Amino acid sequence: MTVLAAIPSPTQGVWDLGPFPLRGYALCIIAGIVVACWLGDRRWVARGGAPGDVLDIAVWMVPFGIIGGRLYHVLTTPEPYFGEGGDPIRALAIWEGGLGIWGAIALGGVGAWIGCRRRRIPLPAFADALAPGIVLAQAIGRLGNWFNNELYGRATDLPWGLTIYRWDSSAGRALTGADGRAEVLGTFQPTFLYELLWDVGVALLVIWADRRFKLSHGRAFALYVAAYCLGRLWIETLRIDTAEHFFGVRLNVFTSIVVGLLAVAYLVAQRGRPREVIDRGAVGAGPRTGAAAPAADRAPDHPVETPADGAAARRTPPDEGDHPTPG
Fold first, then answer.
1. Is the pLDDT assigned to residue 325 strictly greater than 50?
2. Average pLDDT rounded to a whole number, residues 137-166
3. Nearest Cα residue to 276 out of 122, 166, 173
4. What percent of the chain has pLDDT over 90?
5. Which of 85, 219, 269, 325 keeps 20 to 30 A from 132, CA to CA?
6. How many CB atoms lie within 10 A of CB 325?
7. Going by C-beta distance under 8 Å and a sequence separation of 6 or more, which residues neighbour residue 17?
């Protein structure tokens, strides 16, 4: 029986289709967004929300999240862009990899808030529905790091070590030697794979806990954040990619601790609250792509009272300009 000596990495992350480059990293990000929207929509409808709400809000959430993720990456890893020999223009080259999840969640949350306000949807309830899909999107996105030969850990000789090649980020492929073969940099801890597996586990945990304890008011989302931070904490201690350090510790370690503790505090503060009922007549009545919601989605403008003695129903006092027929 042959033992796997190392996990192989792609020697190419970009394929040219005529004038259009097809990038493995971009495909993984897109696939993650699709999965997040699909699962989020199923969970939102199951909670009483209207079909299509998730896609409407994603129009705001996704661009904000991508911009926030890139900003966080550039600000916390400035050397390749603003350090000695750096190229500031490459800060815009998102296709080369580099999206910080903390920035993506922060600005993506702003986009979700805007979308929820437009649709008159409570943001905490929406976040609970979307939480497992978000962390599954993160798992799929980590495959993009594999295509780019990036975000690996310390050198290792473990059987599941990851083969990493000397990489040309701008070309999206491994550098080759005089013999035309890809140059191997070494074998390293596959931290992208550790995080991928952890993210899948977090998604399953949130789905199970949500069904078991009927999490609401943002608690499912807080559980996702707390569990993700716990995994990210130990994974960060293995990574060796460029990052800002404070007191000899990577910045993302501090971020994981602070954000994780805040999520746990929120979980404790919100414990025991019953799951909110999503009333389709009360939410989702905002504009759909610029138009008013269908009449079926809106509460009646004039509620009708039915007297207990069986007398004829009488309307509420007429609005100005409403002229009931006498008689």
1. no
2. 94
3. 122
4. 64
5. 269
6. 4
7. none
What single DSSP character describes residue 316?
Answer: P
Number of neighbours of residue 285 by Cβ within 10 angstroms: 18
Whether 186 shows a pLDDT value over 60: the answer reads: yes
Its pTM stands at: 0.82
Helix (H/G/I), strand (E/B), else coil: 115: helix
What's the CA gap between 55 and 39, in Å, rounded?
11
Of 204-218, 245-259, 288-302, give the range with the top mean pLDDT: 204-218
Q: Give the start-end residues of each E strand in the chain.
A: 14-17, 20-23, 162-165, 167-168, 173-174, 184-188, 245-246, 249-250, 304-305, 314-315
Pair 233, 205: CB distance under 8 Å: no
CA proximity to 153, closest of 24, 7, 290: 7
Count of beta carbons in the 10 Å neighbourhood of residue 139: 21
